[in-house]
Amino acid sequence: MPTLPHKDEETAVPASHGAAGVVVLVAFDGVEAIDIAGPASVFSKAEQMRPGTYRLHIASPAGGSVLTNGGLSFAGTLALRQLPAEIDTLIVAGGDEPSVRFAILEQNVSAWIAEVAPRVRRVGSVCTGAFALAAAGLLDGREATTHWSACDMLQQLRPQVRVQRERIYVQDGPMWTSAGVTTGIELALALVEDDLGHAVSMDIARTLALPMLRGGEQPQLSQALEAQATASHRLRELVAWIGTHPQEDLSVEAMAARAGMSPRNFARAFAAQTGCTPARFVEQTRVAAAAQLLRQTGWTQEKIAGLSGFRSVDALQRAFARQHGQTPQAYRDEGGSARR
User: Fold this and answer.
1) Predicted confidence (pLDDT) per residue in 50-81, tens digit
2) Distance CA 131, CA 142 (A)
3) What is the pTM of this model?
4) For strand 175-178 and strand 169-172, is the pairing parallel, antiparallel, or unpaired?
5) Contact, 33 vs 94, CB < 8 A?
6) Whole-angstrom Cα distance, residue 215 to residue 164?
7) Using an 8 Å Cβ cutoff, are 131 and 36 in contact?
8) Does the pLDDT at position 212 exceed 70?
């Protein structure tokens, strides 16, 4: 990646009030389609809910049609040089490695980003789009993330970046970076929440039928996905159900009955196939559910304990201490402005 001057200045452009903020999604040939389509859906739905909030543009180095790595095309993109002078939010998508390298080295995407970034309120990336920001010098000295499979490469190519491997998105000042592919949706939801509040972000998440709205501190590879990787079809179905029903009876006997197995055989098979005992998996699932509610609501710990499947606040607190080494209140306090 080319070494470009580091932009030490914090972007000081205030959020626009009254006029719609211009949101630019940067694509290129070989881009990952969801990296563009996911955030575009979020911002367009925010505009539908709050008319006059956002004006969305999809741009590319030369404009016109862009062919994604999945064979789909985005037609009618604006050339980078045709974009409005005032950009509120700039997000660079990711793609396969050769395409990202070509966009940076041959199409001068990073040079353009370095040029316009001081005038942009927020700059972000989805997946390997972080390499374009890094090549522009925008991530030097900052925390950032990218797809889990590319974190080591980003750290090697740009040692000045403090790469966070276990985060789905990271905000460091005006720079927002997200992990792989679908996390671009969660990044966009976080940006909308930053602008319009938690209620609007949640309404969009419901409209998109997301199973949950994860916070940026969540790991890129979820516990459920890791468990499903080596599990049989029957247990994969059960793992998915547990994740969305933490408040249900999740005793070994109840889960075994749901899986159509004897309790003894179920406990043995679950541990062997997922690498985790049923009790530990259930506790981790419930703590994760409680963590979401602690960061995203102002509800009491009693209410959160009940909705997460804990029998009492004391049980919630003990489980939280085991997994996070802190109290639920301390975890909530660390969320700061992330919770509305």
Assistant:
1) 999 999 999 999 999 999 999 999 999 999 99
2) 13
3) 0.69
4) antiparallel
5) no
6) 14
7) no
8) no
Cα 57 to its chain centre, rounded Å, is: 21
- 8 A C-beta contact, residue 120 and residue 21: no
Instruction: Mark 91-119 as b/e (b = at least 16 C-beta within 10 Å).
Output: bbbbbeeebbbbbbeebebbebbbebbee
User: Which residue type sits at 211?
Assistant: P
Token pair 């098979």: residue: 269
Long-range residue pairs from 282-287, CB within 8 A, at least 24 positions apart, any chain: 282/242, 282/246, 282/250, 282/309, 283/319, 283/322, 283/323, 284/223, 284/323, 285/223, 285/224, 285/242, 285/243, 285/246, 286/246, 286/310, 286/319, 287/319, 287/320, 287/323, 287/324
Spatial CB neighbours of 104, under 8 Å, sequence gap ≥ 6 = 1, 2, 110, 131, 132, 135
Entry field: residues in the chain: 340
